[in-house]
Design goal:
The complex is a heterodimer of chains A (about 325) and B (about 450).
Chain A lengths: L6 H57 L1 E4 L4 E4 L3 H8 L1 H32 L6 H9 L6 H11 L5 H8 L11 H29 L3 H9 L4 H12 L1 H16 L3 H6 L11 H11 L3 H24 L1 H4 L5
Helix pairs in contact in A: 1-13, 2-13, 3-7, 3-10, 8-9, 10-13, 12-13
Chain B lengths: L1 H25 L18 E7 L4 H17 L4 E8 L5 H10 L6 E5 L3 H7 L6 H6 L10 H4 L3 E2 L2 E2 L2 E13 H6 L5 H6 L5 H15 L2 E4 L13 H4 L19 H15 L18 E7 L12 E5 L10 E9 L6 H11 L2 H7 L13 H7 L5 H9 L6 E2 L6 H12 L9 H17 L1
Parallel strand pairs in B: 1-2, 1-3, 7-8, 10-11
Antiparallel strand pairs in B: 3-10, 4-5, 6-8, 6-9, 6-10
The chains are: A mainly alpha (about 325), B alpha/beta (about 450).
């Protein structure tokens, strides 16, 4: 016993000695790890700072100035551009147009994408062909897509030609307010529905078959299985899709520029097109920057709102 | 350590932000000490001119003139580059270059933007350079052509292209429809807008194709192109000083009523959303400048005649483009010197191949005929030479884009069969008067 009676002080002393030499090593290792980590994220961080953070700050800075790009006048006006914006009836009109566009696009896009995904999730012959067919517009140039549709939607264009062949007199799609808005929404839905469809399809294929089978054995019908089993399980994807679709709907520009030019009247002058007019047609860069800041805040608030409500309806957040 | 690293990262980010802001501040033109607008060096400089033509023949001609200039002035200018910007986005792209601190030395300027550019102070006064250039002969440049580009005795752009509008006629289609040809109507003194509308409507009824349309207004957006016709009613969108809306004046209301009825009563003009391409043989007549004749492929017989007379007589209209020297460019003096060479009488004669010049000595059928082999001497005399001295340009204003959009938004209400013309005109004035007043 005697030789082993007092080993602890030795071990503690050793430990202290070892700890004293290991601590700097551990710290050096941590530093190296941290450095490696920072080096890995540097390209992304530099890109984010240079192309996102700095422009955001700069746009806010510009929005506090009256800047006419043509005459190079650059005067600090404080919140002047924002008060002017609030009193500008055409800004209110563009907010309304953006709201209609977003509501129409998000609703139609998500419903159609989900319906297509459910249909194409069946093991039937030809589904791969249909998946390719619905996805292919996603990879087509947006401007080319819009130009083709501008021909189809002319008063004497392809769509009205088809309608008249079945005895229907079609409207002048792009020249009356309601049909012009409907047209740009539908054109945009057809362009991008394939992307959401693929996301939903991937989510649907991850839903365990046994859960649905168990529900069916319990007597649930197809709709009940979909509503109570499938939909909750794909709700994380639904959250993702709804966020990116809402953001995308508020950033629409090219289709409006090609199809309607913001008209008829200003019925399709959505926020980004309004911003474009102010900056690049009227040279009011400061005022347009204020519109940009407001648009950023709107997108941010909508995204936060969607994210905050996720606990109520997203399956794995409960 | 992590905290220290974070502090370093944060400091770097803040520094980057500040550098970014500082860089942006420099571009705002508040500090001109780094010399935009002043020729800096005794070394030869490289000049850049923005243009909206991408035509290889045009660019080849420009380059040959530039090469000649560089060969003779190698100590001042090392090269001249012609940068093509898309026509539809031309002014927007040019403005973005200017605001980004990348102003070209010289730029083509659309007539609609002319007053805005002239008033902005962004263009250099060219008069001293043009007057002092040897053999330039500024006095022979037509006053009517210079009107848009002058202010307080200074000249801010040279109107290198002045192309009057005429009417291209598909004589094959009119003959098939049993209608008289415009050249015969001119001979008999019956070439009026009413007659044009009448034979156009008859051609539509007989052939099922399109009738007549105003070039530039096919899509019912750029309403300023209606001036090709409304000048013959003595109508104008605003007063001469640009401060008062005149859409509600009788000549304008009469013209708009005429146009509306031509669309919805006679079907002489296609309604919005209906495409009838004259150059594909789908329309009877279209207003056009002489250069558009090059787009005809010979699949039908055609003619070009002057614009018809209206209630206020014949009012020739030209489409114009100017070349200005950007005061914010790096080398305005060298750019003005090059412009004086580019547009001297000898080079104007070369440019006349494509761009009708504003010089009296070059407005003859020999010069224009060599450039436009598709047109007869008689056509050139009637459509270009006789029209040029009295011609007016299309509408323009110091805030044209803003006024144009505001008016277009309301004018869209006119394009229904039941529209009330005086009411729409009143609404246009209500929309644009505040902008004109400012």
């Amino acid at each position: 016993m005697a030789p082993t009676a007092n080993p602890a002080p030795v071990r503690r002393a050793d430990a202290r000695r070892t700890g004293a030499t290991r601590k700097p090593r551990r710290n050096a290792m941590r530093r190296r790890e941290a450095l490696t980590g920072y080096l890995f994220i540097t390209p992304q961080l530099a890109g984010a700072i240079g192309l996102v953070i700095i422009p955001l700050v700069v746009v806010f800075y510009y929005s506090l100035h009256d800047w006419n790009a043509l005459s190079s006048s650059f005067t600090f006006v404080g919140a002047g551009n924002y008060t002017k914006l609030l009193a500008d009836p055409s800004f209110a009109d563009s907010l309304v147009a953006s709201a209609w566009f977003s509501i129409g696009l998000v609703t139609l896009n998500i419903v159609l994408a989900l319906a297509l995904a459910v249909l194409l999730n069946q093991r039937l012959p030809g589904t791969t062909l249909f998946r390719t067919f619905f996805f292919s517009p996603v990879i087509v140039s947006l401007v080319a897509w819009s130009i083709v549709w501008s021909f189809l939607l002319q008063f004497d264009g392809g769509i009205n030609g088809f309608l008249s062949a079945v005895g229907i007199q079609g409207p002048n799609w792009l020249r009356t307010g309601p049909t012009a808005m409907l047209s740009v929404i539908v054109v945009q839905v057809f362009k991008n529905v394939g992307l959401n469809m693929i996301l939903f399809l991937a989510a649907l294929q991850s839903v365990p078959l046994e859960l649905r089978e168990a529900a069916r054995i319990d007597g649930a019908r197809a709709w009940r299985v979909f509503r109570s089993i499938t939909l909750p399980l794909i709700s994380p994807t639904l959250l993702l899709v709804s966020i990116i679709t809402v953001i995308g709907s508020l950033e629409v520009f090219a289709q409006i520029a090609v199809l309607t030019g913001g008209g008829p009247g200003n019925s399709t002058t959505v926020l980004v097109f309004f911003l474009y007019q102010k900056a690049f047609r009227y040279h009011q860069f400061g005022y347009a920057s204020a519109v940009g800041v407001v648009l950023f805040v709107i997108v941010l608030l909508l995204t936060l709102a969607q994210f905050q409500t996720r606990r109520r309806w997203v399956h794995d957040e409960v | 350590m992590l905290k220290r690293t974070s502090r370093i990262t944060c400091s770097a980010a803040v520094a980057a932000l500040l550098i970014g802001l500082a860089g942006c501040g420099d571009n705002n033109g508040s500090d001109t000490s780094d010399s935009p607008g002043t020729d800096q060096a005794s070394q030869p400089v490289a000049l850049r001119m923005t243009v909206w033509t991408g035509n290889e023949d045009h660019l080849s001609l420009f380059n040959s003139i530039a090469d000649e200039y560089v060969a003779a002035n190698g100590d001042k200018v090392s090269s001249v580059t012609f940068e093509t910007l898309p026509y539809d986005e031309y002014t927007q792209t040019l403005t973005t270059q200017i605001s980004g601190g990348n102003a070209p030395d010289l730029a083509w300027i659309l007539e609609a933007s002319g007053p805005e550019f002239v008033a902005s102070g962004i263009l250099s006064d060219l008069k001293p350079a043009l007057e002092s250039a040897e053999g330039y002969n500024l006095d022979e440049v037509l006053d009517s052509a210079l009107a848009l580009w002058q202010k307080d005795g200074s000249i801010y752009a040279y109107p290198f292209s002045n192309s009057p509008f005429g009417v291209l006629v598909n004589t094959t289609m009119l003959t098939e429809a049993g209608q008289p040809l415009p050249k015969d109507l001119i001979a008999s003194g019956d070439w009026t807008w009413d007659k044009l509308r009448q034979i156009s409507a008859a051609a539509v009824a007989a052939t099922g194709k399109g009738g007549f349309y105003l070039s530039g207004f096919e899509s019912y957006l750029a309403w300023q192109f209606m001036a090709e016709a409304w000048d013959s009613w003595d109508a104008a969108p605003w007063s001469a000083d640009g401060t008062t809306c005149t859409f509600t004046d009788k000549p304008m209301v009469d013209f708009m009523t005429w146009y509306h009825d031509a669309v919805y009563v006679d079907n002489a003009i296609p309604q919005p959303g209906v495409v009838s391409d004259f150059y594909a043989g789908e329309a009877a007549m279209v207003t056009a400048q002489i250069s558009r004749a090059a787009g005809l492929d010979g699949s039908f017989e055609w003619d070009i005649v002057p614009l018809p007379e209206g209630p206020a007589g014949l009012h020739p209209v030209i489409g114009q483009a100017g070349i200005g020297v950007l005061a914010q460019g790096a080398n305005p003096a060298a750019a003005a010197d090059f412009l004086a060479f580019f547009t001297n009488p000898a080079n104007s004669a070369k440019l006349a191949q494509y761009f009708p010049p504003p010089r009296e000595s070059l407005l003859n059928t020999d010069v224009l005929g060599a450039a436009n082999p598709l047109l007869t001497a008689e056509q050139l005399q009637a459509v270009v030479i006789d029209q040029m001295p009295d011609a007016v340009t299309l509408p323009s204003h110091v805030v044209f884009a803003e006024v144009s959009d505001a008016a277009r938004i309301v004018l869209d209400d006119l394009w229904t069969a039941q529209a009330d013309v005086p009411s729409v005109m009143a609404n246009i004035c209500e929309a644009i008067d505040p902008l004109l007043g400012n």
